[in-house]
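Hi, here's the filled form for the chain we discussed.

Project: internal
Contact: R.S.
Residues: 141
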Amino acid sequence: MHLKLFELVALILEWEQFNSKRRTLVFTFHLPNSISVKGTNMTFTFPAGAPVPGSVAALTPGVTLSSLTFTSSDPTKFTVAADPSNPTGMIVTPVAAGSATLSATATGSDGSSLTGSVTIAISGPPDSLVFTFPGFTGTTP
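And the returned structure, exactly as it came back:
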């Protein structure tokens, strides 16, 4: 088989792209009302307050994860801990408005190292809401 140099380079790049996808973690966050949001390399915005459960999975189907670790790049914005009720789960707890990076690492069933990260943005609660009706004005705390 005789390959030209550019064909060989294209094959190598395709293999590297396939290999990098194989080592990528996908994040899923479970929001109220049975809403789930799933993705990689993106920003998730959570309201300040209640903890948000989530999980990770390998981008490549059929890979079992072990030795998971989760980290927050700025624990003053949010903290993250493993979810004891879910082997691939985590619980993100908003602390203050702002954003930081959530990173995860794991070992795949084939011995490979998998990584992933997403940006978590925490929106602050509104200072107040003002309702105006004819003859009445009300403000929430």
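Let me know if anything looks off before we file it.
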